[in-house]
Amino acid sequence: MKVHYLLKLSTFLLFYIPTLVFSQDQDSLQIVQAHWNKKEIKKGVIWNQGHFSNLFNSVQEINWVEIDLRKHHKHIHIAGDSTILKTTSKFAEENMALVAINASFFDMKNGGSVDYLKVDGKIINTGKQENSNVRANAVFSISDKNIRIEQTNKITVQESDAGSVMVAGPLLIDENEYVLLPKNAFNDNRHPRTAIAITGNNKLIFMVVDGRSNQANGMNLHELSKVFKWLGAKNAMNLDGGGSSTLYIRNATDNGVVNYPSDNKKFDHEGQRSVANIIYLK
Predict the structure, then answer these.
(1) Are 245 and 208 within 8 A, CB to CB?
(2) How many CB atoms lie within 10 A of CB 238?
(3) Predicted model pTM
(4) Which domain holds residue 5?
(5) What is the pLDDT of residue 9?
(6) Which residues lie below 8 Å from residue 204, measured CB to CB, with a gap of 6+?
């Protein structure tokens, strides 16, 4: 019995593990060597778009903008409202944004972020414990000195001297290391995703992965973490995804939306969901 078990285990290791490693290698090469459709939005701001017919054994549509923080640190901002929901493009237009991405989780009934949000020194939402998002273990902060993505807790967030602070999550990569993600439907199932990262060479990445379509299957958070790692992310965090996932670039399309928001169940640029806040480049 024991010998039979060992033979089965040996067969598994011999055939399955190399296949798995080969598959991961192929996925990483697709991202690293991809012929991304690139467009320079302005100096130090590059829009990348790619469609993959077999990435993670699925169909994927990825749009991401790389922003050189050495040039544009002072032009990164957060915009939000404590009660009123607006589309990402509406927020972007009101704030004269060049590039914008939807941001934190929000209350769809009453508006406002369900987690702590401070914009330019003003607290917009406190993220009270009773309605706080349990996935929110990461913070994006903007100060005069730097822009950071890091693990956080309520005390450090409230005591932060950064002018703008946004809690969301989960954290995906922390100081070049994958963060262990609990096994649950939110992390493990494929959905449209919105996320941000900071690379080792001081670039800020806004990324949207489309989903809920036969033309774009979406990613789970383990897959999303790998994509960021392959693109050189040092720190990365998830934001509100699903029907909220929207990437805006001024004048790139009729309404500025360059991905395919899923809220209208059509693969077009019109399916935006109204959200509570955005991160943007002005």
Answers:
(1) yes
(2) 26
(3) 0.90
(4) 1-33
(5) 47
(6) 66, 67, 69, 72, 76, 147, 196, 197, 198
Whole-angstrom distance, CA of residue 95 vs CA of residue 124: 16
Contact residues for 182 (Cβ-Cβ < 8 A; gap 6+): none
The reply to whether 142 and 14 lie within a common domain is no
Q: Does the structure show a pLDDT above 70 at 2? A: no
Q: Are 183 and 174 in contact (CB under 8 A)?
A: no
Does 81 lie in the same domain as 16? Answer: no
Total domains in the fold of the chain? 2
Please give the DSSP secondary-structure letter assigned to residue 257: B
Same domain as 130, residue 59: yes
What pLDDT does residue 19 have?
46
pLDDT tens digit string along 164-219? 999 999 999 999 999 999 999 999 999 999 999 999 999 999 999 999 999 999 99
Task: Answer yes or no: do 22 and 88 share one domain.
Answer: no
Is residue 227 a contact partner of residue 236, using CB atoms and an 8 Å limit? no
204 Rama sector, left if φ>0, alpha if ψ -120 to 50, beta otherwise? beta
Going by DSSP bridges, is the β-strand pair 122-125/117-119 parallel, antiparallel, or unpaired?
Answer: antiparallel
β-bridge partners, 148: 141
**Co-location of 50 and 27 in the same domain:** no
| Per-residue pLDDT tens digits for 186-197 | 999 999 999 999
Q: What is residue 184's DSSP assignment? A: S
Given a contact cutoff of 8 angstroms between Cβ atoms, the answer to whether 84 and 111 are in contact is: yes
- Measured between alpha carbons, how far is 225 from 54 in angstroms, rounded to an integer? 18
Are 78 and 104 spatial neighbours (Cβ–Cβ below 8 Å)? Answer: no
**282 class by beta-carbon count within 10 Å (0-12 exposed, 13-18 middle, 19+ buried):** middle
Token pair 């701001």 in the structure block, residue? 45
One domain for residues 182 and 267? yes
Percent share of the chain, pLDDT over 70: 89
44, exposed or middle or buried, with CB in 10 Å at 0-12, 13-18, 19+? middle
